[in-house]
Design a protein that fits this description.
Number of domains: 1
Radius of gyration: 19 Å
Shape: globular
Structural class: alpha/beta
CATH architecture: Alpha-Beta Barrel
Number of helices: 10
Strand order of the largest sheet: 1-10-9-8-7-6-4
Order of helices and strands: EHHEEHEHEHEHHEHEEHEH
Oligomer: single chain
Strand content: 5-15%
CATH topology: TIM Barrel
Mean pLDDT: 93
CATH class: Alpha Beta
Distance between the termini: 20 Å
Length: 344
């Protein structure tokens, strides 16, 4: 990876869809004959180009493709699995919540014969930019959350076991393609903290044999801008710091930096990507507040092991607000870099 500035500014994964692109995606689902494959590829490419520009223009130093080809972070991946059938949606109207997410039932062994499609996402991103990038991939336990086992799998852990080799193959394929920085998205780890030892085993097998820097992202859910779990890392952090990863990406801004003292438990050389702006809030944090939050983090972990991010992906945040929040995140980070003498 290219040399990065100290306390590098990055994003978690998703970026806000431009309005025209969100409408096109909805139309393509309702009327699949409306667009040909070349039309759709052109639209995705243009949307990724805008995501790159938004991130770089507003100060990100490690970027993603914005997950512009994905549906609500992970829902689009289920179309790539065989052995699944969609279930009727139980609630369609009223306030948005996690019970409105798409659900599936296993009707046969889960397979992904053509992979998860993330390699193609990376290839497109690399055609458009030479900037430092990371590639997020949803983890098997989180993917299993939308799948009922039916008569094939007795429980969620059994579904997870079936998904581990599928995700592992995708990670290995990305590393072979030249990806140097991968992120495993496992918010379900934080939302279901009861059996952390099992999570460690799942994670170890998921990343086994993957030659890349690996970050583990654990937030508390962000579907329609709402959390889904008890928002505390305290029950699991002592276990997660034993994970075979190089970085933890954790949510703090939405909790007003609660539990930031837990950062002292992160052992060197493991890094922390710390969430300093709240993507669930439409208020834009001023750079001075970002700087204040960053100073509080530095009481517990040294700058050499620190990156700064929004709390979660920006797919549920209006694009104009996401741009302003990222710009503020970058500006606040520059203030602290200057104070520490880390600027050129």
């Amino acid at each position: 990876m290219q040399k990065l500035p100290p306390i590098a500014v990055t994003v978690i994964g998703s970026w806000s869809f431009p309005g025209w692109y969100a409408r096109l995606c909805e139309e393509a689902v309702r009327q699949p004959d409306l667009y040909g494959p070349d039309d759709l590829e052109e639209a995705v490419t243009d949307a990724v180009r805008l995501a790159i520009d938004d991130q770089l223009r507003n100060g990100a130093e490690i970027i993603t493709d914005g997950e512009m080809q994905r549906v609500d972070f992970n829902l689009g991946f289920y179309d790539r699995f065989t052995g699944l059938r969609p279930l009727p949606q139980r609630r369609r109207w009223g306030p948005p919540a996690h019970d409105q997410r798409s659900r599936y039932e296993a009707i046969g062994p889960l397979e992904a014969p053509a992979g998860l499609g993330v390699v193609a996402e990376y290839d497109r991103l690399r055609r458009l930019t030479e900037a430092p990038v990371k590639v997020p991939v949803p983890g098997p336990f989180t993917l299993a959350g939308c799948i009922q086992g039916g008569s094939v799998y007795p429980d969620r852990l059994a579904v997870t076991e079936a998904l581990i080799p599928i995700v592992n193959r995708e990670l290995k394929a990305l590393a072979a393609r030249g990806v140097e920085f991968l992120q495993i998205d496992e918010p379900s780890f934080a939302c279901h903290p009861d059996e952390p030892e099992k999570f460690l085993g799942i994670l170890s097998r998921t990343v086994e044999g993957v030659s890349a820097k690996i970050s583990l992202h654990m937030c508390f859910g962000n579907y329609r801008g709402r959390s889904v779990g008890w928002r505390s890392y305290r029950p699991i952090l002592s276990h997660i710091v034993q994970a075979p990863v190089h970085q933890l990406a954790l949510e703090f801004a939405s909790r007003e930096m609660s539990e930031i003292e837990l950062a002292r438990q992160i052992p060197p050389p493991m890094e922390l990507a710390v969430g300093l702006v709240d993507v669930k809030n439409t208020w834009v944090e001023p750079p001075e507040l970002v700087a204040e939050r960053l100073r509080s983090v530095l009481r517990y972990i040294e700058p050499e092991r620190l990156q700064v991010t929004p709390d979660c992906g920006c797919s549920q945040t209006a694009r104009s607000i996401a741009c302003r929040k990222l710009a503020s995140l970058a500006a606040g980070t520059r203030i602290v870099r200057w104070e520490l003498g880390l600027t050129d």
